[in-house]
Amino acid sequence: MQAGRSRSTALALGLAWATLLPGGGGGRLRAQPAPEAIPPLLDLCQQARAAADAVQLRSLQDRLLALPTDQGLEPVLASADALVRCEAPDAALTVLARRSPAPGPGRRAWLLLQWRAADAGLDHERAAQALRWLAEGDPVRLQEVSLPLAPRQGASPQTRSALDQLADHLESLGRADEAAVVLLASRGTPESDARRWGRAVALSTGLEPDLRDSLLERALEQAAASGAWGLVADLLDQQLAAAPSGPITQLSAAEAQALQRRLRLSGRIDDAYGEWLLQRRFAADPARAAQLDRLLRSPRDPGGHAVQPPDPSLP
Could you report the per-residue pLDDT of 140-160, keeping only the tens digit for each? Predict the structure, then answer.
């Protein structure tokens, strides 16, 4: 069965390459311009992937890499795109390196394809560089650029801001402070700004406490302005994460304020469990902690409120 499938795929490959011959195969072998030659090869790539035929897939990748790209930028972009789709991102980067377009729409398309190939190959350095070139020194430019995320099986295609993608690549490279600077450049919606600024603070572990609290306060204001109360809770939890456990009297003024705000918010977002954890950690209100303990106790635990079955030993 496997041998028959391989012969079928090989025959299809031969037919595809026959289309590269002028006049249906007569005369001297000469490849068509890349864009016209690509569709049949991509179809075969899909078949090879479905059949898990790694040998055939590699052969097709080599064919795509060998297509002529000396007629301008379009064949370069078409070949690189096909190589990414045929699971050969490194080869796509090789093809893209054959050109360096001047500023304009062509260069933008070239840089976006550079990012796609580098991202697909987990080359964070080259992916980050492509986005930096695209930003032209101003990370805010990346906010409105939507980049495709790697598709999940059965899921709808999704996109993400290039600003966040650049921060991801820099974080993966261990350059957390650079990622934080990128995120702090955000000038989007109040909610997106708050989320990015909160993440920037989390990445910048070396920030002075006053600056850290100031940035988190700005993020909280933005999140509250957009009504994103779940995000407000996350930011307050982030602010309290480094606080010492123990009586509330041991907290700094900023930490104590964050705790009181988080406790009040728990009622608004119906987060009794989160409030219970904070009450236990900081002993803010022992009576309230005991009340929450009773509320959250499993009904079947001793003292729980489930109806107990009758004791068979009783008359």
Answer: 999 999 999 876 666 678 899
- Average pLDDT of span 216-228: 92
Show the domain range for 23: 7-99
For residue range 259-312, list pLDDT tens digits in order: 999 999 998 899 999 999 998 899 888 888 888 888 887 655 554 444 455 555
Mean pLDDT value across the chain: 84
Q: Name, in order, each residue with C-beta under 8 angstroms of 101's C-beta and a sequence gap of 6 or more.
A: 73, 107, 110
Give the number of domains in the chain.
Answer: 1
**Is there a domain that residue 305 lies in?**
no
Characterize 283-309 residue by residue with b for buried, 16 or more Cβ atoms within 10 angstroms of its Cβ, and e for exposed: ebeeeebeebeeeeeeeeeeeeeeeee
Which single residue is written with the structure tokens 């379009």? 74
Say which residue, 91 or 253, is predicted with more confidence: 91
Q: Which residues pair with 147 in a beta bridge?
A: 160
* Rounded Cα distance, 129 and 111, in Å: 9
For the whole model, what pTM was predicted? 0.75
Decide if 73 is inside a domain: yes
Does residue 189 have a pLDDT over 50? yes
pLDDT for residue 213: 85
Residue 69 resides in a domain: yes
